[in-house]
Amino acid sequence: MKGHGHVQNAIRAMNKAVMWTADEIDAKVPVRYSLVKETYTTLKKKAWFFDNQKQEWFETCPAYILQGCDNPSD
Fold first, then answer.
1. Rounded to whole angstroms, how far apart are CA atoms 55 and 49?
2. Which neighbouring-strand residues pair with 51?
3. Are 45 and 25 a contacting pair, CB within 8 Å?
4. DSSP string, the chain
5. What is the side-by-side strand order in the sheet with 33-35?
6. Separation between Cα atoms, residue 31 and residue 17, nearest integer Å
7. pLDDT value of position 17
8. Under a CB-based contact definition with an 8 Å cutoff, are residues 54 and 69 in contact?
9. What global pTM score does this model have?
10. What pLDDT sits at residue 19?
11. Rounded CA separation 25/34 (Å)
């Protein structure tokens, strides 16, 4: 809390979200998946991906893919 003046200000400072661009997310996801960049807004909102192995589209949060979760149909 040092330097923040109030507990809530310290919590807000520690919980700032990291904003990544669609290109950065596409570079970080496994090769199996491709991000549809037009559908990406934030890590916590759903976006469309293409599964190159199954040749199908699916919708999920980019944060789930980065955490190692697979296609929801698996």
1. 11
2. 33, 56
3. no
4. -TTTSSHHHHHHHHTPPPP--HHHHHHHS-TTEEE-GGG---TTS-EEEEETTTTEEEEE-HHHHHTT---TT-
5. 33-35, 47-51, 56-60
6. 25
7. 59
8. no
9. 0.72
10. 77
11. 10
Distances (CA, A) of 28 to 3, 21, 22: 35, 11, 10
Residues paired with residue 33 on neighbouring β-strands, in sequence order: 51
What's at 61, amino acid-wise? C
CB atoms within 10 A of CB 57: 12
Which pairs count as long-range contacts for 30-36, CB under 8 Å and 24+ apart, including other chains?
30/65, 33/65, 33/71, 35/62
Beta bridge partners of 57: 50
The number of residues in the chain equals 74
